[in-house]
Amino acid sequence: MAITGSTAAGAMLQPSGGSPAARAAAAVSLPATPAGRQAGWFVVAVTHWPIPTAAIKAHFDRAVLAVATPAELNASLDGVTAVQVDSITTSTPDVLVFVATVNGKTKLSVSIAVDSHGLIAGLHLLPAGSSAPAPPPVPSTWAGVDSLVRSVAPQVRLLVASVSGGTCVPVHAIDATTPAPLGAAFKLYVLAALADAVASGKVSWAQKLTVTSQVKSLPSGILQDDPDGTRLSVQQVASDMISISDNTAEDMVADLVGRAAIEEAARTSGMADPALDVPFLTTRELFVLKLDDWPQLAERYLALGPAGRLALLAGTIDHDPLSIADASAWTAPRDIGSLEWFASPTDMCHVYAALAALARQPALAPVASILELNQGDMSLGSQWRPVWFKGGSEPGVLTLNYLATTKSGHTYVVSMLTEDPSAPISGTPATLALLSAVKGAFELAAR
Questions:
Q1: Domain residues for 157?
Q2: Is residue 72 included in any domain, yes or no?
Q3: pLDDT at 239
């Protein structure tokens, strides 16, 4: 099992000291570091399965919970009755790796990483002696970058560009002006529309939004699990929308600013063919189209023009109930060439350039902090400022989109859009390949 996430705030519970499991955990020499304390809690908690949802939410950061719900975490730990820590192999304040015997017979290497708040941001359980999959070497040539990108899927698009004065100047490209499915990277346009609304005085970062059953979507994210009536600031909702790609958060922002404003943001940011995204779907609407009576409802929607599609959304789809069970059979690509959000890598560069210009306005400074919360596992070194990231995926789609600026002030965008209409893209290996390609692209562009 492997789950990872990004930094987010939260509280920490301490394990009970009276149970046999707690005494056993305390008897081993786990270090008194943030990672060591979480390891001590974890060793105790797994032997009291199922771990209460409240405890999981108190110990794991929001980004982890966006990709692994408490129920999924518990399901992965079912059957654990005893854990004995045998040895510690790595110990830093933020990372602890130890070997443990589970149920008296199975040897596992357990790695726990914590964020700046001391919450679990990464958890890996592997057979002892093995290690997590390693990314391929960072390419040192453009041919090497291209090879890694093309290894992921049969259809790929790539742009590496420098950004100056709101203009994108290509450095290297593969079919960079052809639109492709974005996955959740479309949320950059929603953020741009929100920033425009704040700039015009229609919205404030501090005003409160309410979680309701009508606006709840399916994961990724965690807001769909919050009780109806939960109140959150616009800035917190926007942060969740970008940093943990929370779908309910996106739909809350879309409801606030309106569909027309997002479509306008796509046009004004420089999208070459904004008609491809009219009407601009919410995540909930896309889920209904791909899960409810698929493919009949989707075919009915796609056969209509923009006005007819909008009427269908308002009359039927926006009122359709959703549940996690609805998504269980969605494992293969479904209409990714016609029912998605679409833009090209060049369009992605343009929206990043537009967001960078917006973020320079004092009232819109939160735009930068929101985009920096999750840096997409991209560590470029001390010569770079914090990275902006938004990716996206669904069966058959994987996209990674970054903006990074050197300490000397040179800004670059790398956008990689990959798709396979006939099969899902292979998870971790594909992501690791693209991450290496992205890092190589930034290093080559900045030479």
A1: 142-281+330-445
A2: yes
A3: 95
How many folded domains does the chain comprise? 2
| Residue 342 forms part of a structural domain | yes
- Residue owning tokens 């890996």: 124
* pLDDT at residue number 13: 21
* Interatomic CA distance for residues 25 and 202, integer angstroms: 54
- 112 and 214 share a domain? no
Cα of 15 vs its chain's centroid, Å:
30
DSSP state of 418: E
pLDDT value of position 69: 81
Q: One-letter amino acid identity for 153?
A: A
The CA–CA distances, whole Å, from 208 to 154, 233, 238 equal 44, 4, 12
- Residues of the chain where predicted confidence (pLDDT) is lower than 50: 5-27
Examine the domain organization and report whether 416 and 335 are in the same domain. yes
**Of 57, 53, 14, 56, whose CA–CA distance to 37 is shortest?**
14
Predicted local confidence at residue 293, as pLDDT: 87
Let me know if residue 314 belongs to a domain. no
CA 59/CA 175 separation, integer angstroms: 44
> Which value, in Å, is the radius of gyration of the alpha carbons in the chain?
22
Mark whether 147 and 255 lie in a shared domain. yes
CA distances from residue 417 to 147, 184, 324, 340, 434 in whole angstroms, order as listed: 14, 12, 27, 13, 10
User: What's CA 324's distance to the chain center, in Å?
Assistant: 18
Q: How far apart are the first and last CA of the chain?
A: 38
Amino acid at 420: D
Assess whether 249 and 158 both reside in one domain.
yes
Structure tokens at 350: 């343009």
Same-domain status, 56 and 163: no
| Lookup result for tokens 């974890």 | 42
Tell me if 250 sits within 8 A of 187, measured CB to CB.
yes
The CATH number linked to 234 is 3.40.710.10
In 201-341, which ranges are E strands?
208-210, 231-233
**pTM of the predicted protein model:** 0.82
